[in-house]
Design a protein that fits this description.
Layout: H1 25-37, H2 44-57, E1 61-65, H3 68-78, E2 86-90, H4 95-103, E3 107-111, H5 122-128, E4 133-136, H6 148-158, E5 161-165, E6 173-174, E7 177-178, E8 185-189, E9 202-206, H7 209-219, H8 252-283, E10 290-292, E11 299-300, E12 305-310, H9 318-327, E13 332-333, E14 352-353, H10 358-366, E15 367-371, H11 378-394
Parallel strand pairs: 2-3, 2-4, 3-14, 4-5, 5-8
Antiparallel strand pairs: 1-9, 6-7, 6-11, 8-9, 10-12, 12-15, 13-15
Helix pairs in contact: 1-8, 2-8, 3-4, 3-7, 8-11
């Protein structure tokens, strides 16, 4: 179902998916224009979207990539990390935050999160810093901004890098600044399920000219084509390689989508915020059993999804509730990779766990999310509240 289409909704029978397409006729026509032009790889439309996104976030440079995970790998590669260097990141996150740290030869250091926000704990970060710490990589999980004041204070005091993983937090705000604008570098994802989408796609952001040039080169094999460089006699400048890079270029189709998706973003955000405010109000009566997220003062939560935590001592489990909701047609998911320290892939990654991961594990065991997007209107969001009522009533609560 395209963003411009509608459907008949029947409570308890019509499936409510995690996401629906965010694009419409304009994106399709722009993509067809690129196909008909014959210029389908990274070109003018990608450059236009990069400029628009930099302007929106409030950062000087934006470099588009083929995915958000590639954006993370490029940002980390740009900083020249060496084997054994440590990067502190939350234990509650998605795999593509942690794996790129290991892929550049550094050591992911996993720390606990805050139980209310699901975000990295600045206190845990400070305790985890060692002489080997080169960077902190917080994640604005599910669109909820991290405590950037505290984290920026830590990196200034310790003279270490700050890389913001804002892949799920398009347009989120912390203390008047959009997330992705405070660190040395930041990353975004435009995957199909995100606030806006270029089907696949990502972005690396920075205010540092030299970082931007390096990322542009690394994005295209380490080529010199897009960046200032000295001449090397005997080497054709068209095929001059300055770095050992990757092929992480986006297509012009992705740029074509992006330039029409961005004007839709604020409307999508407000729709998600309205949905979340409604659910918070209507589900508050179950506060003895459920913990819901609240938007903190001085922030704008953009609600990538709607998370729910089952409180300790509740007379039912997370899995009981999830099975009931899924049977009603409400699609759910765990909170990202959960406590990634217990994922089997971590057995193959040199990493360090700094302190107890009590909150990350509790969220892993007792929380879930369901979709929150522009396709969920008054009928769907009211039906979801009704499903929670039915579940509680069935248990005499």
């Amino acid at each position: 179902m395209l963003a411009t289409e509608s459907r008949v909704f029947v409570p308890g029978m019509t499936r409510i998916p995690l996401n629906i397409p965010t694009y419409g006729r304009e994106e399709i026509d722009e993509a067809i224009d690129s196909l008909e032009s014959g210029w389908v790889t990274c070109g003018k439309k990608v450059a236009a979207f990069e400029w628009m996104w930099a302007e929106y976030i409030g950062v000087r440079h934006a470099v588009m990539t083929n995915s958000g995970s590639s954006a993370n790998l490029l940002a980390l590669s740009c900083l020249g990390l060496e084997p054994g260097d440590e990067v502190i990141t939350p234990a509650l996150t998605w795999a593509t935050t942690v794996f790129p740290i290991a892929q550049v030869g550094a050591v992911p250091v996993l720390v606990d999160v805050d139980l209310d926000t699901y975000n990295i704990s600045p206190t845990a970060v400070e305790k985890a810093i060692t002489p080997r710490t080169r960077a902190i990589m917080p994640v604005h999980l599910l669109g909820n901004p991290c405590d950037m004041d505290a984290l920026c204070g830590l990196v200034r005091k310790r003279n270490i890098y700050l890389i913001e993983d804002a892949c799920e937090a398009h347009g989120a705000i912390s203390q008047g600044w959009k997330v992705g604008s405070s660190g040395d570098m930041s990353t975004f994802s435009f995957f199909f399920s995100h606030h806006i989408s270029t089907i696949e796609g990502g972005m690396v952001m920075t205010n540092h000219h030299e970082y931007a040039d390096r990322v542009r080169s690394l994005r295209s094999f380490g080529w010199a084509r897009e960046v200032p460089h000295q001449d090397y006699p005997g080497i054709d400048p068209r095929f001059l390689f300055l770095h050992a890079g990757y092929n992480f270029r986006p297509t012009e189709i992705q740029g074509a989508f992006g330039i029409h998706q961005l004007p839709r973003l604020e409307g999508f955000i407000e729709h998600r915020r309205d949905n979340a405010a409604y659910w918070n109000k209507e589900l508050a009566q179950f506060g003895d059993y459920l913990q819901l997220q609240e938007e903190r003062p001085g922030t704008r939560h953009v609600w990538f999804a709607y998370p729910v935590m089952v409180r300790p001592g509740a007379p039912f489990t997370r899995d009981d509730l999830v099975r009931f909701l899924e049977a009603k047609g409400l699609e759910t998911r765990p909170i990202e990779a959960g406590n990634i320290a217990v994922q089997p892939a971590m057995k193959h990654i040199n990493h360090r766990i700094a302190g107890p991961l009590t909150n990350a594990q509790y969220i892993h065991d007792h929380s879930f999310f369901f979709g929150n997007h522009q396709g969920i209107g008054p009928e769907e969001r009211e039906a979801i509240v009704g499903y929670f009522h039915d579940f509680m009533k069935g248990r005499g609560l």
